[in-house]
Amino acid sequence: MGKQKQQVISRFFAPKPKSPTQEPNPVPESSTPPPKISATVSFSPSKRKLLSDHLSAASPKKPKLSPPHTQNPVPDPNLHQRFLQRFLEPSPEESVPETSSSSSRKYTPLEQQVVELKSKYPDVVLMVEVGYRYRFFGEDAEIAARVLGIYAHMDHSFMTASVPTFRLNFHVRRLVNAGYKIGVVKQTETAAIKSHGANRSGPFFRGLSALYTKATLEAAEDISGGCGGEEGFGAQSNFLVCVVDERVNTDTLGCGIEMSFDVRVGVVGVEISTGEVVYGEFNDNFMRSGLEAVILSLSPAELLLGQPLSQKTEKFLLAHAGPTSNIRVERASLDRFGNGNAVDEVISLCEKINASNLEDDKEIKVEAAEEGMSCLTVHTIMNMPHLTVQALALIFCHLKQFGFERILYQGASFRSLSSSTEMTLSANTLQQLEVVRNNSDGSESGSLFHNMNHTLTVYGSRLLRHWVTHPLCNRNLISARLDAVSEIAACMGSHSSSQNSDELVEDGSERTIVSPEFYLVLSSVLTALSRSSDIQRGITRIFHRTAKATEFIAVMEAILLAGKQFQRLGIKQDCEMRSMQSATVQSSLLKKLIFVVSSPAVVDNAAKLLSALNKEGAVRGDLLDILVTSSDQFPELADARQAVLVIKEKLDSSISSFRKKLAIRNLEFLQVSGITHLIELPVDAKVPMNWVKVNSTKKTIRYHPPEIVAGLDELALATEHLAIVNRASWDSFLESFSRYYTDFKAAVQALAALDCLHSLATLSRNKKYACPVFVDDCEPVEINIQSGRHPVCTCFHFLFSFFLCLFKMEMYRSFCFQRYWRLYYKITLSQTTQVCMQKGNIAKLSPDLTWEERAVISVKLL
């Protein structure tokens, strides 16, 4: 509702009385009618109706006429009624509807741009770049004032608030963490281009440059801004989970038992910052216990609800995404995906895959299949259940607005919720056993994962969380992981006990060689990686072309360092036997992981990509001097740089002509406050009339000749063209990284697995855990516990021993606790000590002692 108009009532004044010097004219009895009284009054329609009802209900009172002792004319009795009728008449302005006034409201050019952007993105909080600040308008300003604690005020037609540009990163994270979808609107043209274009007199063109939510923030441009450790980000997984369901008929099974399932649920979860995709479809009961287990294991940052959704499913999801969980919820309609359109929508993704990418990634897909993962192909889509395909289509359409849909068909690893190699824990198990969160305050502290987590990297911590919530159930995989942990633990022991050469360690009947060199390399690599950034999300940002040059260099240097360090172990692959050979590492799992990290493809490609960048320019922040140009690499960028150099040389060489013109031999160009090529002359110096005065002091004046003005204008245009070409070249360089993305992703995943194995080895040595040994299938199943202790029995060891002593002495029936404590304090410490030292045990106690005294001495002995 618009703001009500102010009510303005014109006042009425009687004619001024004549001056006292003049004699009053007598009023004739048949006087002419009094002059017309006109009034213009504006009331709102509701108040006008209320006033008219009140006046019609009340009987009009006749005004009391005052005696004609004044100069005022005699009032007419009907004058008041006529006044009220005229008072209540609608004015011409009031007859126009209120919507027309709002439609005819005039906006400034900037406000008109904001209105157009808001109509395109109605559910987005827009931050509009205006000069050196980002401004909020309308309801967005009120949201920013409430969340960020800034001041919002009225400016022209909208409420407005603003933040400085250098604080963009910090404020975007705070707004996203509050659950809003944030859009950053930037100027699409610079002042130099605008001054030479057709829009020189209009406002800057602006467009949406970035869009952020909780699930896409880490995959977007790195805006850590010094607050990377803020709650809700960092080591936590940021899954975007889409849920769809449909009702099922309560059929009966073959045995006649009625099913307890009422819906079939389809779930797809995407970790955009790492490229992991989890999908599945299952029947669920009215309690939605299966869906609860999936949500608890994934811990999503954002939920996408496919409408229509059953009432119980939506109620559970909204309750889980309450104010305490800080999960963002968004709805999407499934109407467009009816009659098989969802399958067509998803299959269209696969058509965008190049044949070259398929050939290059053939080996990676084979390794992913061995680990229970797959890539998005037509065969994979056709094998998916129809609800899963609908959820995948919704996620694809959702990611299109962010520009991250490429991760689904080119860089994602698909994994099913139900796997034959991993266990699926129920929601009750995860909660009651406090696997990932405790039951006291819901935090991670004190949980099973918190006690087991000794990882050194962020991506290793994320992988260990998946290992804890999805235990292995395949014997071969368990044995391989146990062998790797045992070997790392043995290397730790050999390294700590001696700094010498190899050590022999017995493992059952076999003897394996344990080399401390392997532990030295592993620990040094993990320590170096712990000081670097999150390279797993870094390579994903490079894949999305949102990474900066400094982040690209840091990620490639970390991968190159790890690869070169592991190459020292000399692990080679036998092409014929397809097995790993190494003299320092025995575990097959460790050999495989180390070979993936130190493969020639990874090391050579990382060195090749780093050679194309200028590290010094990236450190200086010079965006125009990041890429290294050559004859066959970035030729357009080389031409643009050459054009800028030619113009600069032309400007610098023009100083000789001005020396001759002014007859000053030592004349040089001056630079003041960022303004270059200034000619500084004394105040009394004579210069041509067309010279432009830029600034001055008390004694000097600084000028720009027309030739310099034209040259600087040309230089500004050339610099803008260089920036555009440099941005295009940088995008093409990042685009070429997609050819190596699968190799680098596999290498980072192997580093995370090595970190998890090192964490488990550290845990086993600190807690002195024993390695379980599997028996053959023909052997009987047995549990053999030696020197086992139960925590409850340990705490109450004194109480158990005491009652056992009483039972042996056959006095437990007549024993009284009150008598026991009374006699306990009667016996002195010296007597008890003497008896204990002389007799030694209960069986040889002195016969002079009573049974109560014997019980007390027995307790002391225990």
Give a nutshell description of this structure.
This protein is 45% helix and 14% strand.
Helix/strand/pairing category: alpha+beta
Number of E-state strands: 21
Q: If you average the pLDDT, what whole number results?
A: 76
What percentage of the residues does DSSP assign to strands (E)? 5-15%
Oligomer: single chain
Rg (CA only): 42 Å
Q: Span between N and C termini? A: 84 Å
Q: How many DSSP helices?
A: 34
Major beta-sheet overview: 7 strands, mixed
Shape: globular
Helicity range: 40-55%
User: Order of strands across the biggest sheet?
Assistant: 11-10-7-8-9-13-12
- Return residue spans where pLDDT drops below 50 for at least 5 consecutive residues: 1-14, 18-32, 34-44, 58-72, 93-102, 225-234, 252-258, 353-373, 498-514, 810-818, 820-830, 832-845
Kindly describe this structure.
- This is DNA mismatch repair protein MSH3.
- It is found in: Nucleus.
- One of its GO terms (biological process) is mismatch repair.
- Its main location: nucleus.
- The protein has 862 residues and is an alpha+beta fold.
- The chain contains 34 helices and 21 strands.
- The radius of gyration is 42 Å and the shape is globular.
